[in-house]
Amino acid sequence: MDGDWTEAEVGDFLRSRRARIRPEEVGLPAHGRRRVPGLRREEVAQLAGVSVDYYIRLEQGRGTSVSDAVLDAVARVLRLDETEHAYLRTVARPRRQRRRPAGAPRVRPGVQILLDGMERSPAFVLGRRMDVLAWNALGDAVNGFSRLAPDERNVPRLVFLDPASRELYPEWTAVAAQTVAQLRLLAGRYADDPGLCALVGELTLKSEDFRRLWTDHEVRECAFGVKKVRHPVAGLLTLPYETLTVPADPEQTIVVYTPEPGSETAERLAVLGSWNATTAATSD
């Protein structure tokens, strides 16, 4: 993903957002024939207080020197939420990221100790491409990461390319949309990462569902929420989750499932943990 991608992305993103807004919602007359849904470019420019030519340059990806004030005005007109607003700033003014050393990302030993200390909570670490980099025993028992080849330990690949994911996630449609929205956010943040570009290309070629969702241009920071998992041993698990950024490596995120103590899911996880420990001891 490079400058060409971000130039196209800022235009596609803005067009998708102005298509969501009806003229009457912003006090404009709705009469007249419209070739496209939503607001016209000149209407966005008028409401944002900028010239039409200036706004057109922004949609064409030629607004790399655009000010915060203009981006804030456009975000207000298009009713962007906080995450969308931050994403617009990222793709409108892309910055070259510091190149990381070659090789697989490493999780510090202290982070692994932290994961292992959370014996009652499934937990794992995601990298900038949503690769699963590390996990604890209960996280593995829920998700089965250790049974996968290293290049298969990637959340978008699992969701869209592994047929078993539709059985694993009873609410697969919501999980898929959330995964794409998070991946697009990361793709904007790390626009010069060739691995991310390759991942998006692979999924676009191999998954019709991914292609459809990718064209929606949704962006979302999945910092917390609830995910349902239908586990073959533990049954249906309702798993609230929280995410924490690793301070020493902001590109790594710790995901922790946090079921309420005493809940049915917490009890099922305790049984699963015991079963997993017994299975591991037997296999040794």
Descriptive overview:
The chain is α+β, with helices and mostly antiparallel strands. It contains 13 helices and five strands. The chain has helices at residues 3-18, 41-48, 52-59, 68-77, 82-92, 109-117, 137-143, 155-161, 165-168, 172-189, 194-206, 208-214, 264-283; strands at 123-126, 132-135, 224-231, 235-246, 249-257. It has a five-stranded antiparallel β-sheet with strand order 2-1-5-4-3, sandwiched between helices. β4 and β5 form a beta hairpin. It starts with a helix and ends with a helix.
Main attributes?
5 strands; 284 residues; 13 helices; alpha+beta
Record the SSE blueprint.
Elements: H1 3-18, H2 41-48, H3 52-59, H4 68-77, H5 82-92, H6 109-117, E1 123-126, E2 132-135, H7 137-143, H8 155-161, H9 165-168, H10 172-189, H11 194-206, H12 208-214, E3 224-231, E4 235-246, E5 249-257, H13 264-283
Antiparallel strand pairs: 1-2, 1-5, 3-4, 4-5
Radius of gyration: 22 Å
Provide the spatial order of strands within the biggest beta sheet.
2-1-5-4-3
Mean pLDDT: 90
Number of helices: 13
Span of the ends, CA to CA: 45 Å
Shape: elongated
Query: Could you estimate the helical fraction of the residues in percent?
Result: 40-55%
Low-confidence residue ranges: none
Topology pattern, helix = H, strand = E: HHHHHHEEHHHHHHEEEH
SSE-based structural type: alpha+beta
Largest sheet: 5 strands, antiparallel
Task: Kindly state the number of beta strands.
Answer: 5
Strand content: 5-15%
